[in-house]
Amino acid sequence: MLTLTRTLWYLKELGIRPRKTLGQNFLIDPNIVQKSLIMAELRPQDVVVEVGSGLGTLTQELLAKVAEVYAVECDGRLCDHLQKTLEKEWGSRFHLLHEDAVKFPIAQKPPCEEYKIVANLPYAISTPWMDAVLSQEILPSRIVVLLQRETTERFFAKVGTKSMGPIAIFLQSAYDLEEMHPVSRKCFFPEPAVDSVLLSMSRKEAPIFFLKEKKSMIRRLFTERRKQMKHLALKYLPPSIANAWLSFLCSHDSSDKIRSEEVPMELWQYFMADDPRL
């Protein structure tokens, strides 16, 4: 497992300087790696997707515990390193994709099989990547990710708070939050400017999905947070949908004067979801 000393040695040998634009903060605390594995509840038959494999700190531990790992890494320098080390050691159990994780959120894993996600996410892509995962035909049964604390607050924001937004609606409609573990910025090299959270979530028995068109509508309704829903709906939604949405709110003990972050979660789910199962 890579410590700070070993990480610095590898980076020097490979001639790699961490790129801030790629969100490259390498995990150097073995305890956090082990905590990730425990929270993922891994089994020998599991298939795991990892995002941003870096030097392979977490990847190596995953491969020792599960059947297959599908990894996506956007830095070609690190892909070369992973191919020369992990592919050589683990063969066909390790599948590496040199690509953008937002475009390939589950690393070209075959779509028909169950899987889990365990990852130390580059913070800059956290929200678009999560949105892309939630658009998959089969959702992962469990997601364990290292995130910036602020992102975690947005992912599991409560109705009525300033952090409440579209991604919270999409994510909380499909997943239950199980555990949050604080992670100090000192657990990374280079040290980021923020503290992090190790987050574990499990897929609901009946996850609720939102189609691309409905997601777009919800995002538009959050563009002017100070405005009341009546103004937003008539401005951003097709007239027939706007009128139906406002009538729906009023008939469910709500009001057309409500603001977006105040709308109860179940109303978003029932009216806007592709397959509401309430």
Q: What labels describe this entry?
A:
278 residues, alpha/beta, Helicase, Ruva Protein, domain 3, 11 helices, elongated
CATH homologous superfamily descriptor of the largest domain? Vaccinia Virus protein VP39
CATH topology of the largest domain: Rossmann fold
How would the global form be characterised? elongated
One letter per element, helices H and strands E, the order comes to HEHEHEHEEHEHHEEEHHHH
Please count the helical segments.
Answer: 11
How are the secondary structure elements laid out?
Blueprint (H helix, E strand, L loop, with lengths): L3 H11 L11 E2 L2 H10 L7 E5 L5 H7 L4 E6 L2 H15 L3 E5 L17 E5 L5 H8 L8 E7 H7 L10 H7 L2 E9 L4 E2 L6 E8 L8 H9 L8 H8 L2 H12 L14 H8 L6
Parallel strand pairs: 2-3, 2-5, 3-4, 5-6
Antiparallel strand pairs: 1-8, 6-9, 7-9
Helix pairs in contact: 9-10
